[in-house]
Design brief:
The protein has about 150 residues and is an alpha+beta fold. Helices cover about 35% and strands about 20% of the residues. It comes from Paenibacillus violae.
Length: about 150
């Protein structure tokens, strides 16, 4: 059973999610509130992704975003694409409630597990995952190719 403060995302949460993203990484400011809103519409209507938020006093203070991860050589997993708790509320179990909600959703939906990437410098986050039974599997280099709008 999910904590009463954890619920699925609503489009109206876009401003709080934008602010959480800014606190997590100020370089994300180029992804405007309006773009966050547009992305929420796309994710909630056109994908199988799930986003859970933790709401307290009508404010979203954390979220976790899971996306189905399908490979031709492994069982289906859920990939955590975003996971942020407002720094002022960390250490209160909010992250645990969010990840437990995603884990339960994944189990109920028939996925075999959850995977995630975490930056090498996020040592506290690594300890959080390890305490929850996640195992370090490998170091990787991430590559990206962007297409500029003309």
């Amino acid at each position: 059973m999910r904590d009463k403060n954890v619920r699925e995302v609503r489009i109206s949460d876009y401003q709080d999610i934008y602010l959480l993203n800014q606190h997590f990484n100020p370089n994300l400011s180029v992804f405007t509130e309006e773009k966050v809103k547009e992305k929420l519409v796309t994710l909630t209507t056109k994908t199988k992704d799930v986003i859970f938020v933790y709401e307290q006093h009508n404010e979203v203070i954390g979220y976790i975003h899971g996306s189905p991860y399908e490979l031709l050589f492994a069982d289906s997993l859920v990939n955590i694409l975003g996971f942020v708790v407002n720094v002022a509320y960390r250490g209160q179990g909010i992250g645990s409630m969010l990840i437990e909600s995603l884990e339960q959703w994944a189990k109920d939906a028939g996925y075999s597990g959850i995977k995630l990437l975490s930056h090498p410098t996020r040592v506290q986050a690594h300890h959080f995952y390890e305490r929850r039974g996640y195992q370090f599997t490998k170091d990787q280099k991430n590559f990206i190719k962007t297409f500029r709008e003309n």
